[in-house]
Amino acid sequence: MPRQDRLFLAFVLHRRDYGNTSLLLDILGSGQGRFPAIAKGARRPRQPASALLQPFQPLWLAVAGRGEVRTLTRVEGAGPPIPLQGRALLGGFYLNELLLRLLGRHDPQDPLFAFYQSALSRLAEDADLETRLRQFELRLLDELGYGVRLDQVAEDGAPVLADRLYTYEREHGVRHASERAAGPRLSGATLLALTNGERLADGQRREARVLLREILAPHLGARPLKSRELYQRWFGSGAIAESPQRRDPTTARPVDSEEPC
To answer: Which residues, in sequence order, are bridge partners of residue 8?
Structure first.
């Protein structure tokens, strides 16, 4: 659990109004894991904490209290906010939603915290959103003990070959493709790119997205992800129909209507 009155590096995963003047936050903290906290009076006029307590803003925090929900006692910026825009911003919301749905409370995950911070920075710097999201999904599964083997065929232990076609089944893993095989079909090249952390080629991105949705589905449950709904609202096929070249509302650049997450 968080140590009282000691500063630690943290990010806000989610925030909502609480009472008349406070905020209820979901925090991811280094050495702390995920936990809820109240920022008392943060919404009062001229209160600087409200502007700092936003997603993607590195923070130094201290907390107090012994219950499940802690109280923030100190809030300081730990650097400038990570500048996510457009699809990258929605990608950041998706990472936050995965952590909220999959991480238990008060379970320190320091390697995952460091990887999350790095993933946000890469989303801000790199146009290859889908490769970054797939890398984070696989790392999150590994850290939670749900890792999958994608470079080996489950039924006979054969190595995956780049020029072969395979399927993935939740109960078994990677299997040789056949007419009777269930699950998504994908190339060996896609499986190897995911295993090696390589940049996904244009033809591999959809395969990788479908695969990771299949792997994550039993852990996420049936409740829809809000980040996907938001992506469809901003960039969905209906909006594309209204404007043949749909543009990112934050950058005015053309965007692909297909969800990256």
So the answer is: 61
